[in-house]
């Protein structure tokens, strides 16, 4: 297509009845490929014209991708507003002074401006929203304050990868709550998690897991991650086959099997207390991966910054303190898999007072391995699964309100710190994740709720144009569809292209018109339903409507019926796709 025609095409890009315009962004060489198995999902998103990556980690959203993105954000807005959150939008620029107060300015993932080093591009907005609320001087009658926004965020990824799953710029829904007490904050936390559950379960209808998680740099004492299971995911979850508890590997705690053997040799990991005056020595079986999952709950005084330091750096800090080494305190933590016969590394400090030593035993301080015992129920075994994180909810407590002196006036007219929560959903990340988990050898399978179109229209050769126009007049306006109107693309390749795009239903007008043929491209992820909506409709009207359906030898589901019943049948099918 000549370049001079492009501007006119782009002006029509939101026309719902044709994607001819969008084909200028797609790679027609895909039609020469027999199978898409070897094409990564993030590459296929680009080849089909959903997105374009101008540089590593930077995404342009094209018409098809934007339609999907807008449907997704509409669903999220609905769920957040159902539980009382109001939308706002903060600036992408955030002030250095706030981040210094919360101790997060030195985060290596912050994009900091070079021509004005007092600002950064915000990867999240805990600091800014807390400061904004603080300035309003609210009292208890104004609480809770519930806010959310959907905006672009920025994070310096040294190695952007997997397209939308790990980018430097991304679209995110971040929400924040301000409550008067812990109990009220917990009610809000549960409320948001219920909204998330409805979004993932009832809107997207995709299988997901809710995992106990480490709060990381965001902070707070409790958090949960929301995941799609996928073998290419970067996260590892452990799930108990008895009680069903799911935890991120960083939070999961396991117990050894009854017939385990104590470790012959141990490794050690050193940490410091918050005042840097106590050295915490953590001994665990050699070859296992050290984990702080349970340790941080047992010893609350640990300086979290030392988790990222080497043993050598920790010793330097410990010895640089003004207090005499002989007066310092020591805590030895022994993993449950270690006993008196285990060979421990030499302790580097030779002069100390024995009464300054304390011992903690019977803790599990290593990451679980397959088939170890669940610490939660102490009965089931843990099994690992790879997953893609797409959401995270946090109870923050007073971490940010205390750091930024954000207070409200209580019933007693006393200033108290807000109890806060924050709640994120990676919107662009969800698009990338669904592309990854739904892709097969023929293309994508979008959930109907976020598919760029409800169905695709394909017209067989030599069909009268009047029949096509007659059919279009019968379609409800609420059902958007696409039609590839390029005569150079064969009938078979038009069907192939629509399968690649992942639109859930392909409607075919052939020589038997007004009989319509439907081919189901979408997937019914909810396998536990006793009866799908189209099955209920078929029982009521199938015989009267002369409606028949079949699943051929290739597993392809097809429906045949008169055009007058098209809207009712398609709408019933979409409810489960």
UniProtKB/TrEMBL annotation:
<dbReference type="Pfam" id="PF00587">
    <property type="entry name" value="tRNA-synt_2b"/>
</dbReference>
<dbReference type="GO" id="GO:0004827">
    <property type="term" value="F:proline-tRNA ligase activity"/>
</dbReference>
<keyword id="KW-0067">ATP-binding</keyword>
<dbReference type="InterPro" id="IPR050062">
    <property type="entry name" value="Pro-tRNA_synthetase"/>
</dbReference>
<keyword id="KW-0648">Protein biosynthesis</keyword>
<dbReference type="InterPro" id="IPR006195">
    <property type="entry name" value="aa-tRNA-synth_II"/>
</dbReference>
<dbReference type="InterPro" id="IPR002314">
    <property type="entry name" value="aa-tRNA-synt_IIb"/>
</dbReference>
<keyword id="KW-0030">Aminoacyl-tRNA synthetase</keyword>
<dbReference type="InterPro" id="IPR036621">
    <property type="entry name" value="Anticodon-bd_dom_sf"/>
</dbReference>
<dbReference type="InterPro" id="IPR002316">
    <property type="entry name" value="Pro-tRNA-ligase_IIa"/>
</dbReference>
<dbReference type="GO" id="GO:0005739">
    <property type="term" value="C:mitochondrion"/>
</dbReference>
<dbReference type="InterPro" id="IPR045864">
    <property type="entry name" value="aa-tRNA-synth_II/BPL/LPL"/>
</dbReference>
<feature type="domain" description="Aminoacyl-transfer RNA synthetases class-II family profile">
    <location>
        <begin position="65"/>
        <end position="461"/>
    </location>
</feature>
<dbReference type="GO" id="GO:0006433">
    <property type="term" value="P:prolyl-tRNA aminoacylation"/>
</dbReference>
<keyword id="KW-0547">Nucleotide-binding</keyword>
<keyword id="KW-0436">Ligase</keyword>
<protein>
    <recommendedName>
        <fullName>proline--tRNA ligase</fullName>
        <ecNumber>6.1.1.15</ecNumber>
    </recommendedName>
</protein>
<dbReference type="InterPro" id="IPR004500">
    <property type="entry name" value="Pro-tRNA-synth_IIa_bac-type"/>
</dbReference>
<comment type="similarity">
    <text>Belongs to the class-II aminoacyl-tRNA synthetase family.</text>
</comment>
<dbReference type="GO" id="GO:0005524">
    <property type="term" value="F:ATP binding"/>
</dbReference>
């Amino acid at each position: 297509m000549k370049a001079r025609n492009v501007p006119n095409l782009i002006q029509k890009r939101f026309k719902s009845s044709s994607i001819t315009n969008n084909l200028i962004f797609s790679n027609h060489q895909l039609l020469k490929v027999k199978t898409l198995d070897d094409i990564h999902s993030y590459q296929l998103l680009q080849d089909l014209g959903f997105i374009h990556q101008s540089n590593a980690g930077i995404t342009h959203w094209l018409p098809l991708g934007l339609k999907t993105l807008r449907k997704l954000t509409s669903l999220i807005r609905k769920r957040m507003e159902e539980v009382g959150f109001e939308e706002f939008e903060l600036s992408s620029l955030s002030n250095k002074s706030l981040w210094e107060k919360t101790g997060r300015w030195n985060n290596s993932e912050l994009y900091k401006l070079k021509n004005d080093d007092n600002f950064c591009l915000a990867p999240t907005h805990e600091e800014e929203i807390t400061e904004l609320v603080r300035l309003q001087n609210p009292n208890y009658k104004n609480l809770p304050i519930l806010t959310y926004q959907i905006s672009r965020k920025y994070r310096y990824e040294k190695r952007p990868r997997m397209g939308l799953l790990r980018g430097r710029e991304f679209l995110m829904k971040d929400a924040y709550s301000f409550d008067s007490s812990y109990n009220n904050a917990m009610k809000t936390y549960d409320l948001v998690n219920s909204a998330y559950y409805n979004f993932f379960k009832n809107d997207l209808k995709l299988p997901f897991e809710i995992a106990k998680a480490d709060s990381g740099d965001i902070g707070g004492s409790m958090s949960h991650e929301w995941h799609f299971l996928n073998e290419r995911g970067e996260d590892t979850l452990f799930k108990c086959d008895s009680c069903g508890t799911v935890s991120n590997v960083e939070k999961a705690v396991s117990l050894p099997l009854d017939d385990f053997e104590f470790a012959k040799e141990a490794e050690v990991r050193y940490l410091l207390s918050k005042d840097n005056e106590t050295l915490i020595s953590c001994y665990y079986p050699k070859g296992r991966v050290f984990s702080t999952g349970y340790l941080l709950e047992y010893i609350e005084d640990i300086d979290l910054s030392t988790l990222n330091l080497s043993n050598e750096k920790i010793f330097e800090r410990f010895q640089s303190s003004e207090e005499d080494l002989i007066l310092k305190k020591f805590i030895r933590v022994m993993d449950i898999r270690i006993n008196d016969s285990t060979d421990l590394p030499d302790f580097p400090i030779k002069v100390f007072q024995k009464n300054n030593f304390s011992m903690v035993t019977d803790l599990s301080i290593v990451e679980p391995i397959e088939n170890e015992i669940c610490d939660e129920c102490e009965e089931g075994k843990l099994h690992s699964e790879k997953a893609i994180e797409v959401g995270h909810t946090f109870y923050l407590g007073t971490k940010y309100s205390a750091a930024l002196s954000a207070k409200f006036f209580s019933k007693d007219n006393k200033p108290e710190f807000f109890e806060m929560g924050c709640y994120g959903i990676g919107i662009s990340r969800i698009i990338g994740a669904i592309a990854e988990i739904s892709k097969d050898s023929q293309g994508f399978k979008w959930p109907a709720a976020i598919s760029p179109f409800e169905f695709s229209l394909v017209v067989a050769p030599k069909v009268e144009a009047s029949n096509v126009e007659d059919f279009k007049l019968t379609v409800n306006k609420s059902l958007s569809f696409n039609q590839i109107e390029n005569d150079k693309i064969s009938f078979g390749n038009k069907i192939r292209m629509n399968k690649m795009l992942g639109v859930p239903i392909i409607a075919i007008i052939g020589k038997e018109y007004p009989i319509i043929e439907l081919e189901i491209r979408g997937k019914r992820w909810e396998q536990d339903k006793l009866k799908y909506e189209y099955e209920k409709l078929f029982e009521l009207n199938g015989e009267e409507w002369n409606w028949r359906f079949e699943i051929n030898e290739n597993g392809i589901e097809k429906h045949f019926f008169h055009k007058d019943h098209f809207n009712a049948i398609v709408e019933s099918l979409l409810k489960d796709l």
